[in-house]
Amino acid sequence: MFLIPDPVGRFFHRMASPPHFYAFTEKLMPWLVGIFLILLACGLYGGLYLAPPDYQQGDSYRIIYIHVPSAWMSLFIYIVMATTGAIGLIWRIKLAEIVAISSASVGASFTFIALVTGSLWGKPMWGAWWVWDARLTSELVLLFLYLGVIGLYNAIDDKRTASKAVAILALVGVVNIPIIHYSVEWWSTLHQGPTVTKMDKPSIHVSMLVPLLLMALAFKFYYVIAMLQRARLELLQRERTANWVKKMVTEQVQ
Amino acid sequence: MVAGAALATAFALKSFNENLMYFFSTTDVSAGKAPKDALFRLGGMVVKGSVQRPGDGLTVHFKLTDFSKEVAVEYTGILPDLFREGQGIVANGKLDNRGVFVAEEVLAKHDENYMPPEVKASLKAAVEQKKP
Amino acid sequence: MTLQEFFAMGGYAFYVWTSYGICFLVLLANIVLPIIRRKQFLRQLALKQKRQNL
Lengths: 254, 132, 54
Description:
By secondary structure, chain A is an all-alpha fold.
């Protein structure tokens, strides 16, 4: 606690209070949406129009601009979900529980997009919609983990108990994350090795890399927007009997 | 519960490692490590100048290599767009008694490099210039 | 590059545009659905409060 500067500590303390969170995210939303749309427009223009076709794959490689950022987000969001789940489990912070479960549906969506776009890319290039190789299989397992988290949460009526159960499931599933990442190195897979995170030399031309990174950043902003929208709904449902919600509804009616 | 899940994962990983080893190399096949009379996957690079189309049908003959041993492959069907000489591929099929791999399915494996055609051309030119 | 060439995607139009289409449909749904459900929920709460006040 001594390591955290006072204003930062106060910010998190205020954010952990539901009415503040609800009001603050509403004010924040136009900014987030604005930045997201600018990044998305630049990324799409760069990726679909400016970037040259690939020497091997022609224009079909342009699927990379949604496939790879989605796959990255599917892993990133899982880690956020497991971490906030653990924080909720240990310190009983209601807002951490809400962020964890609100991340699940966004993460599941990105995993689904990564799998579907990968399939649509694999058919013309590899010659198959689907193969049971290690990368594809472990990403499918990730989708089931997300769906398991969502299903388990909906099956338990008491949402605080549900959050605990979900956090444990998410933490157990964390073992899958390094498996997905290293699958292309540990096993001989049809899926090629890493392109961008390879340390020794860049294996993507800079004119193709810049739009990819822009799209990745745009998807990060998208995640915050979508997660907050779900979190606001979740928060209202949990706090329906709280005074601040009642007051807000009364003001709305008048 | 966590210990149980960890144990289950460990077993799943172990069987995964045994069954999902995606393909055999051409050296494995030459050494007789590949299964006989059973389907398996063979991975390698299409040897330059080895692709032949006897007759006018869809049948293709070519050789695969891992730069140490070569295996002859026969395939009838539509090839993926990326199939070309010098390309890495994975074929699913079985060995016949002549030692020829009869493929039922051919998948192209591309590398993790992405670049414009001009850059590839200049890279290639640079490599060829270096050669004595 | 003409507009036609752009949409043709070098012959991969089906794969490329289906990918982008599915991607943005899913992303849009993820934002629109929670907003609709939150508005509905607030309306329900308001209705309940009105009934209690009568």
